[in-house]
C-alpha cells in the first residue's frame, strides 16, 4: 500500500457519516452528560503504547476514539463548564474544520482562496474594532503568540531595521501594563530576550483598571533612569476579573510618550459586537495592534487567535525574509504577495480562517453580540444569587462575564476549602469552576463564556457549591 486513500471509498463514507452522527448526538446531549471525567489509569496508560508499525485501520482507530478519547475531553463544550475563559465551539465551526481539513491548504503563502478568506477575516476584524483599512493581520494559535508578534513589531519599529540582525543594543527596552495583565505578556518579554522584568506592572484602581497617574510617573522615572520605554499594553478583559483599562486614555499616554500602543483584548474584543457594551472598548481603534481570540467569546473552534497591526507594512518590516524558493512572482500560483509567511513567524500554516469565516457568515455578528450580552447577564444573575446566599461572598466587582467569589462559613482553612470545592465539583462531573487568588485569598472563579450556558445552570451552580461545602464540613466534623 503506497497511498493512504482507500480503493473503495464507500466504507470510509459510511464511517464518516457515523462519526458525524455520533458527534452531533454528543453535542445535542451535552447537558445530560458529566462536564468532565477524570481519566482512569487504564485509559492514561493506553497512550503510552509503542509506535504502531502496522495500522489497525480506520474502523478500529475510531472505535478507540469513541471508547478512550471522547469521554475524557476537557469539557469546555459543556454548558456547565465555567472554569476558565474558554469558548464552547459551534456546529458550523466544527463542520468548517472538516472542510478545511479536506482542502488541506497551506496558508503560508501563494495565490489561492485560503489567503483571500483570511484577508477577509482580518478586514472584518479591523472593521469590528474600528481599525483603519491599512490594518494587516494574521490568524494565529492564540492571543499568547499574538501578543508576542505585537511586541516584536513594536520592537522593530522602535529600534529600526538593524535590530533584526544585531539584536537589541543600547538602553534597555521597557514596557508597561496593569498588574492583572495575562501571564503571556511578561512571557513575550521573556521570549523576546528583553526579560520579563522589563514589563513594568502598574497598580490598578478598585475596578481593576490601570492607574494612569502611576503609569505616567513610572514612564518618566524609567526614562530618567536611562531606560527606553517603547510599549504600552492595555488590557481589555483581564483574565481574573474581566476588567477593562481606559483605552482612550492609554492611547493618549502612548502618543504623549512615543510608545507603541497594544491592546490584549483576548476575549474582550467581542464586546465590540454588543450594542450595549461596545463603549467599554472606546479607544481600541487607536491601537497600533490588538491581540484577540475567536476561540473564546466568538465560539469558534480551537485554535483561532488573531493579531491585527494598524499598518500591514509594520508586520512586513518585522518579519519579511527573502528565500529564493519562496520568491513571489507576478503570475501563477507563486503570485499573490504579500504572503502571510512575511507577516509573522510561521511558514506552513493551516486554514484557520475558514472556521471563523463560516461562523461569521452563518450566524452574523448580531447573534455573537447577543451571546456576549447573555454571558454578562448570567454573570450578573450569579452575582445577585450569591448576594442572597449567606455563605457566599463576592470577591471582585463583576465587570463582564467573570464572577469571583468565596465560600466563607467562618470555619477553618477557607483557602483549602475553596480549592477543594472546585475539585469536588469537577470530579463529580457537575460543574467546572476554577480558582484564583484575589487579595491573597483563594476564591472560586466562574467565567461564563459558553453560548450553551443557561440561567438554570447558573442557579444550579450556587446550590451545588453550598451542598458540596456542607458535605465537606460535615465529614470533617
Ligand atoms: C486567554 C487570554 C490570553 C491568552 O490567549 P491564548 O489564546 O490562550 O493564547 C491572553 N490574554 C488574556 C486577557 C486572555 O484572556
UniProtKB/TrEMBL annotation:
The cofactors named for this UniProt entry are:
pyridoxal 5'-phosphate
Q: Which residues carry this modification: N6-(pyridoxal phosphate)lysine?
A: 296
Query: Which Pfam families is this protein grouped with?
Result: Pyridoxal_deC
The UniProt keyword set, sorted, is:
Decarboxylase, Lyase, Pyridoxal phosphate
Residue ranges of the TM segments: none
Which GO terms of type biological process are on file? amino acid metabolic process; carboxylic acid metabolic process
Q: Which GO terms describe its molecular function?
A: carboxy-lyase activity; pyridoxal phosphate binding
SUPFAM superfamilies, A to Z = PLP-dependent transferases
Per the similarity annotation, which family is this? Belongs to the group II decarboxylase family.
Q: Which PANTHER family match?
A: GROUP II PYRIDOXAL-5-PHOSPHATE DECARBOXYLASE, MIP05841P
Name of this protein = Glutamate or tyrosine decarboxylase
Amino acid at each position: 500500500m503506497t497511498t493512504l486513500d482507500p480503493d473503495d471509498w464507500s466504507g470510509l463514507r459510511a464511517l464518516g457519516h457515523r462519526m458525524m452522527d455520533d458527534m452531533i448526538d454528543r453535542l445535542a446531549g451535552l447537558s445530560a452528560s458529566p462536564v468532565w471525567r477524570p481519566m482512569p489509569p487504564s485509559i492514561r496508560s493506553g497512550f503510552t503504547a509503542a509506535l504502531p508499525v502496522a495500522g489497525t485501520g480506520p474502523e478500529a482507530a475510531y472505535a478507540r476514539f469513541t471508547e478512550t478519547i471522547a469521554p475524557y475531553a476537557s469539557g469546555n463544550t459543556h454548558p456547565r463548564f465555567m472554569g476558565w475563559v474558554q469558548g464552547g465551539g459551534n456546529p458550523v465551526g466544527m463542520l468548517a474544520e472538516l472542510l478545511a481539513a479536506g482542502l488541506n491548504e497551506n496558508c503560508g503563502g501563494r495565490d489561492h482562496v485560503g489567503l483571500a478568506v483570511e484577508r477577509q477575516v482580518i478586514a472584518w476584524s479591523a472593521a469590528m474594532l474600528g481599525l483603519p483599512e491599512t490594518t494587516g493581520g494574521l490568524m494565529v494559535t492564540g492571543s499568547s503568540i499574538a501578543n508576542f508578534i505585537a511586541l516584536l513589531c513594536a520592537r522593530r519599529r522602535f529600534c529600526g531595521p538593524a535590530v533584526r540582525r544585531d539584536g537589541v543594543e543600547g538602553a534597555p527596552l521597557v514596557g508597561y501594563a496593569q498588574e492583572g495583565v495575562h501571564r503571556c505578556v511578561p512571557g513575550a518579554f521573556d521570549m523576546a530576550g528583553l526579560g520579563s522584568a522589563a514589563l513594568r506592572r502598574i497598580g490598578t484602581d478598585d475596578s481593576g483598571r490601570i492607574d494612569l497617574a502611576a503609569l505616567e510617573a513610572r514612564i518618566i522615572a524609567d526614562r530618567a533612569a536611562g531606560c527606553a520605554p517603547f510599549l504600552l499594553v492595555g488590557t481589555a478583559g483581564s483574565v481574573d476579573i474581566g476588567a477593562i483599562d481606559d483605552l482612550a486614555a492609554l492611547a493618549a499616554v502612548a502618543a504623549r510618550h512615543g510608545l507603541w500602543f497594544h491592546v490584549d483584548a483576548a476575549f474582550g474584543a467581542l464586546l465590540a459586537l454588543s450594542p450595549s457594551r461596545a463603549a467599554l472598548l472606546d479607544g481600541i481603534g487607536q491601537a497600533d495592534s490588538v491581540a484577540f481570540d475567536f476561540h473564546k467569546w466568538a465560539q469558534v473552534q480551537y485554535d483561532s487567535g488573531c493579531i491585527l497591526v494598524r499598518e500591514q507594512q509594520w508586520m512586513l518590516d518585522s518579519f519579511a525574509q527573502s528565500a529564493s524558493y519562496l520568491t513571489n512572482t507576478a503570475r501563477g500560483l507563486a503570485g499573490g504577495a504579500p504572503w502571510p509567511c512575511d507577516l509573522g513567524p510561521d511558514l506552513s500554516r493551516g486554514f484557520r480562517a475558514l472556521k471563523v469565516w463560516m461562523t461569521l457568515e452563518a450566524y452574523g455578528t448580531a447573534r455573537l453580540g447577543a451571546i456576549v450580552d447573555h454571558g454578562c447577564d448570567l454573570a450578573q444573575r450569579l452575582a445577585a444569587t450569591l448576594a442572597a446566599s449567606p455563605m457566599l461572598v463576592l470577591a471582585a466587582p463583576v465587570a463582564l462575564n467573570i464572577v469571583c467569589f468565596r465560600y466563607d462559613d467562618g470555619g477553618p482553612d477557607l483557602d483549602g476549602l475553596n480549592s477543594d470545592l472546585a475539585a469536588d465539583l469537577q470530579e463529580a462531573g457537575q460543574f467546572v469552576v476554577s480558582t484564583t487568588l484575589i487579595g491573597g485569598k483563594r476564591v472560586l472563579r466562574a467565567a461564563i463564556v459558553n453560548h450553551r450556558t443557561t440561567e438554570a445552570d447558573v442557579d444550579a451552580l450556587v446550590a451545588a457549591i453550598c451542598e458540596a461545602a456542607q458535605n465537606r464540613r460535615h465529614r470533617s466534623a
